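The data layer described in this paper is built around a simple, fixed record for each protein. We quote a single record here, exactly as it is kept in our systems:
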Amino acid sequence: MDRAKIDSQEKDIAYDEGSVFMVPIKQGTNVIGIVVRKSNINPSALGYFLENHTDDPCAEACSLNGEKAKAAFILTIIFVDSQLTSGNWPLLGRIPNWSRQSWPIPDLCEKNPLTKRAMLIRLCDNDIDEIESMTPISYENSRLS
């Protein structure tokens, strides 16, 4: 590849834990995301997602902490970060004074609709690629609160 092509390629956008970003859902509708953990080896991150109710979503996300934050989130997932690094999910800012202790990783639930089995998954706090424990739970009652 020649030098001009290399120079013209866009560089990946850098993000870190505590980054706040916008996920466009449909025309005029967005969801706010917060990067809670980055993978140590894979291009992925664990994020908390909440509805956007304001003209200043970064300020809304930055105002959350503790139980207020837990109640506000509509989804917690591990996602591939290509939408962030490409700019398709624009970065809005960063939570000031970011602290992992203030944003713990919740237990996750994995459901298999084919086998009707569910697992409660606890990830290692320092590495979302590492599972600390997996516990079978009732498929019917597998919604986490």
Summary: The CA atoms of residues 12 and 86 lie 6 Å apart.
